[in-house]
Design goal:
The protein is built from seven helices and ten strands. The protein has 223 residues and is an alpha/beta fold. The chain has a six-stranded parallel beta sheet with strand order 7-6-5-8-9-10, sandwiched between helices. A four-stranded mixed beta sheet has the order 1-3-4-2. It binds NADP nicotinamide-adenine-dinucleotide phosphate.
């Protein structure tokens, strides 16, 4: 067999059963894809790679200043991949100080990007130098409170606004950012691309992201 995917709550626990980790999985500290390479099980994190693939289809990461809303597992994976791809500055905006500071320290100490932690305890305005804003919180998922406490008018035309939420694909966050002239990127691409990357790791085959996207929409009842 070629490997396997795993998800919450096993992404950290699985590491002790593996023989090694890919570079970004090691920095992220979480694995969602194990790959059998010559009899050794190597842990990879395809969440961040999937996001990065969607992101790079719109704009390069090099030199970007990024606002990251959230500091959980998805945020960690995305931030590490963007930093490894050349993003230079992050504002890590998170409700709980501990998780936010931990991700900020990870970026400052283990990547060449610089990061500042912002405690999210009041309405947040996107700084003037930010070019990208990413909702990597779970806010906006079906049955969750979907309105982030940000000043949506601080999102400017020409910015990129990305979301990690898969269902619904078009979130309140993306709607509001789009109304301010931002280019928007749905979380659907991230989940489709992590599958494309996992299949490539296991089999060497490039599958068509559009086929997977269409099937996912059908499964979600959105086709
Ligand atoms: N598209 C994809 O392929 C993909 C892949 C992975 C995950 N996801 C999605 O990403 C989302 C996050 O997943 P995760 O694994 O990162 O979860 P997680 O580790 O539990 O992190 C959740 C994050 O959301 C924040 N948050 C939750 N509710 C909030 C609220 N009411 N106000 C402010 N902040 C809030 C948390 O802040 P605190 O630290 O303060 O609690 C934390 O930063 C989920 O919706 C998941 O489905 C999508």
């Amino acid at each position: 067999w070629k490997g396997f995917n795993c998800s919450i709550p096993h992404k950290v626990e699985v590491i002790k059963y593996l023989d090694g980790l890919g570079e970004s999985a090691s920095l992220i500290g979480a694995v969602n894809c194990a790959v059998n390479r010559g009899g050794k099980l190597i842990g990879e994190n395809t969440d961040g790679k999937g996001f990065l693939k969607s992101f790079l289809e719109i704009t390069p990461a090099t030199g970007k200043t990024i606002v990251l809303l959230g500091a959980g597992g998805a945020a960690r994976a995305i931030a590490v991949e963007l930093a490894l791809a050349g993003a230079t500055k992050f504002y890590v905006v998170n409700r709980s100080r501990a998780r936010g500071e931990e991700l900020t320290a990870l970026l400052n100490e283990k990547t060449s990007a610089s990061a500042t932690f912002v405690e999210w305890n009041k309405t947040y305005s996107i700084p003037q130098d930010a070019e990208v804003v990413i909702n990597s919180t779970s806010m906006g998922m079906v049955n969750t409170e979907g309105k982030q406490d940000i000043d949506f008018d601080s999102i400017r035309s020409g910015m990129l606004a990305a979301d990690v939420i898969v269902n619904p694909p078009q979130t309140y966050f993306l709607d509001e950012a789009g109304k301010r002239g931002a280019t928007t990127l749905q979380g659907l691409g991230m989940v489709v691309n992590q599958a494309v990357i996992g299949i490539k790791f296991w089999t060497g085959v490039d599958v068509d992201a559009k086929d997977l996207n269409d099937e996912l929409l059908r499964v979600l009842g959105l086709a």
